[in-house]
Amino acid sequence: MFADEISVTLKLNRFDAGISDTIRMTVSVKGSREADNPGIKGLEDFSVRSGGQSSRVEMINGKFSSSLDFTYFLQPEKEGSFDIGPAFVKVDGKVYKSNTEKLTVTKQGAQPGKGNTDKPVFLAATLSSGTAYIEEQLSYILRLYYIAGISNVSLDMPEIEGLTFKQLGKPVEYTSRYKSGNYNVIEIRFSLVPSKPGRFEIVPAKMGMRVRISGDSDLFEDFFSSDDFFTSVRGRSVTVASNSPVLNVLPVSEKGKPADYTGMIGRFNISAELDPPRVKAGESSTLTVLIKGTGNINRIPDLEFPEIENLKIYPDEPAIETEQTDKGLIGIKTMKWAIVPEKEGLYTIPYLEISYFDSGRKAYLRKKTQTFKLIVDPGTGEMAEPKFVKGGSAQLKKPVEELAEDIFPIHKSAVNFSKSVSFNLLWLLLIIVPFFSFCTAYVIYIVKKPTPEKEAKMLAAGAAKGFLKKCKNEDLNADDLSDSIRDYFNKRFNLQLGSIAPDEASSILKAGGCNQDTIGQMEWLLKKLETFIYTGKGSEPCDMHEEAALIIKSIEKEIK
Amino acid sequence: MKRLFLLAILIAVPSFLFSAENSSNIEELFYKANQLYKDGAYDEALNVYSEIEKSGYTSGDLWYNMGNTCYRLNMTGHAVLYYERAGRVMPRNPDLEYNLQYVRKFVKDAADVPSSFLSDILFWTESMTLNELFIIFVIINLLFWCALILRLYIKKEWTYYFPVVLLVLWLVSGISWAWKYYYDATDSRAVILSEEVNVLSGPDEREKLLFQLHAGTIVMHDQSEEGWTLIRLDEKRGWVKNNDIEKIKKNTE
Questions:
Q1: Which of A411, A430, A432, A440 is the best substitution to test chain B (most B C-beta atoms within 10 A)?
Q2: pLDDT tens by residue, A292-339
Q3: pLDDT for A433
Q4: I want to staple A210 with a disulfide (CB 3.0 to 4.6 A). Which of A33, A235, A484, B38 is the partner?
Q5: Do residues A552 and A462 touch, judged by C-beta distance below 8 A?
């Protein structure tokens, strides 16, 4: 979906220039990608060169927005103050008009102040005025002049108690002639608002950057600097400081201060509109008051609408919109009142006024709206809801008024008609069945779990089986065989021996009811193994696993 | 075995059919009453609704509709009584909540039934029915004991923490259900039905008048004897005639 509102804006990249400078002018047509070449007023004293045109399409908040830019370069032919514009652009047969910009052309253009202005890179700070009133909005402009290639530019702004800086728009770049040389200029504009009186010497702003100056390097540096492996950013790090302009801040004069003065300082305009100017009794008309200007817009008061007999007045929430422009902060405060006449007749809507201090004229001024006549015809007798025309930013909201109360209607169908059911056996079963299931499972678990005696018997039964399994290994050495016999005895007779001696084995087997022959064979086997182990042959194959297996089998047969 | 099975079917089917037939009749009566209500015949509608109630078949919607009908008949006390009854069965019904709040505006006495400490702690039981709490408890109970059985045979970390978590839920749901059961079983709230009721110091017309109550006020029913009921409201106690008051919980419940 394309935004269908078409508007034309004229912009200059600078507002003061030297006679030999070039000014870039852009005429932007929003809402269309096609338009006839614009006709621009106020260019009689300029040599104009076209810089071409470009169009773009953007998507903002889900809506496509298209625009077309015409670029021109202006070369002044004489000094003076010029109003550039308006531009007239024909789109689809309809002519749209732009704003007008003011341009001052001097012999030298914007000149840097005192300081190191003979260097290839220098920073100049200028103030729009050396004297200001508290809360008056000034311009603080920083211009970086350079003739060498620069990169990685950073800015360190001064911080001074009682002075507030706010950047206006994006930095602009242009070329300017200074001291018979052409400089590239980066211009950054700030709004400066003082909040207390006194003399302020604005400490220098500092700009850091990498500068590449031809003839400033030696062969070695050139050789390696061409290779990114040796240096990632070419050139030298340079920091330049601006000059220190002085600002005298004065308090606003008490002489002639109006009683309703709210501290507004700057330049303001007030306008009003009554829509519709003719209504029927009980219908709503809207008075819209706009206060627009540059200065401390937050000081614009909420105006009060006087009470008028037979008119009901409903104020809307005031809305403030601010816009940062190259010239400073511009603000618009919109106030609306819905006016609902109760009776027919001719009503006079009185003027509303503001008072402010005009810093240019150095005097208090009053500005007021015009008065309006509201014609009210006989109505239907019913009072309408107050409503604001032209979709005010904040609609008047009224709490929902209850006109009557009543119960909710009957239910047409009944869910689950049932006879009352009291707690019964089924309920109890649902609760206790899982519990008894657990009890049963627990009993089974306990019953199946072996007792220590059973566990010992099972171990004993497995002892011979394990031993015989090990004996199948023909490479069994004396150490392993001795350990296997010890393990067999431990498991078979529920012992915890670290090693087993022939005597110990005899007495255990005797107590177990084995034959003397078997006991003797075991004694012989263990002694043999001891001989192997103590003569250093414990880790060699002993070739006695078959005898050992036979003895254990005999023990198993004979043991009671 | 087959014979026994057939016998069981023969016994079960007629009782089911009888029950279904009755239920169908009740629904017909319900729709009839609704139609009467719609036609503005509130007296007759209330009679039909009452007939259903007397038959022993109840439903939250029935009591809700009876509350509406009583409100239309300017019977504030009865409207509050039936809405409160419906609230026991369908405590989260928004229509019911609104209508009860609305009808309470017409109750003249500023008297609230005090809540107990346990009611405040187990606040969620107020918006749940006994059946709902029971179903939750039965499910958690089943899961809890199953988790314990699992723990007997699988000794893993999760089989340790799972029953612990379920034990907490088991206790919370069990206590909630037990509290709700106790609360419902001992619910002695009663509603004043008559427009204005004299509360006397004894069960006799000649006794001293202690204070007066008005239709829709909820009091606590202490005891009944010889056509009189001893009621309690905050610190006040006194006797009212039986026909001036009705308990929210029906005796058949």
A1: A411
A2: 888 887 788 888 888 888 888 888 888 888 776 666 677 888 898 888
A3: 92
A4: A235
A5: no
* pLDDT score, position A217: 46
In a mutational test of the A interface, the residue from B25, B30, B37, B61 whose CB has the highest number of chain A CBs within 10 Å is B61
Cross-chain Cβ contact A423/B141 below 8 Å: no
**Of B171 and A92, the one with more pLDDT:** B171
Q: Is residue A229 over pLDDT 70?
A: no
Q: Lowest-pLDDT range, A22-31, A109-118, A190-199, B183-192?
A: A109-118
Residues of the domain holding B221: 189-247
pLDDT band for position A234 (50/70/90)? low
Of A409, A431, A437, which is closest to B138 when you measure between CB atoms? A431
B121 min Cα distance to partner chain A (Å): 24
Q: Distance from B86 to chain A by nearest Cα, in Å? A: 12
Whether B113 is in a domain gets the answer no
Average pLDDT over all residues of chain A = 81
Interchain CB contact of A441 with B (< 8 Å): yes
The partner residue sitting opposite B253, judged by closest CB among A407, A420, A435, is A420
Angle at A524 between CA A521 and CA A529, to 5 degrees: 125
Q: CA-CA distance, A358 to A11, in Å (whole number)?
A: 26
User: Nearest-CA residue of chain B relative to A409?
Assistant: B68
Please list every residue in chain A whose beta carbon sits closer than 8 Å to the beta carbon of residue B26. 417
Q: What CATH number corresponds to the domain at position B238? A: 2.30.30.40
CB-count exposure of residue A17 (10 Å: 0-12, 13-18, 19+): buried
Residue in chain A closest to B182 (alpha carbons) equals A423
CB hemisphere CA count around A25 (13 angstroms): 34
- Same domain for A369 and A456, yes or no, is no
For residue B102, list chain A residues with Cβ-Cβ distance below 8 A.
405-407
State the distance between the two ends of chain B, measured CA to CA, in whole angstroms: 38
- Whether pLDDT at B244 is above 80: yes
Task: Label residue A392 by pLDDT band (50, 70, 90).
Answer: very low
Q: CA-CA distance, B69 to B118, in Å (whole number)?
A: 35
pLDDT at A388: 61
- Alpha-carbon distance of A435 to A441, in angstroms, equals 10
- Closest-CA residue of chain A to B94: A408
Complex prediction ipTM: 0.74
This prediction has a pTM of: 0.43
- CA-CA distance, A212 to A222, in Å (whole number)? 11
In a domain, A439, yes or no: no
Contacts of A411 in chain B (CB under 8 A): 61, 64-65, 95
Write the residue in A414, A420, A438 that is nearest to B149 by C-beta.
Answer: A438
Calpha distance A13→A170 (Å, rounded): 10
Specify the length of chain A in residues: 560
Do residue B142 and residue A415 have CB atoms under 8 angstroms apart? no
Give pLDDT tens digits for A395-407.
444 556 666 778 8
Whether the CB-CB separation of B109 and B214 falls below 8 Å is answered with: yes
Tell me which H or E stretch contains A272: strand A266-275
Domain boundaries, position A66: 7-106
CATH of the domain at A321: 2.60.40
Instruction: Give percent of chain A above pLDDT 70.
Output: 85
Comparing A264 with B13, which gets the higher pLDDT? Answer: A264
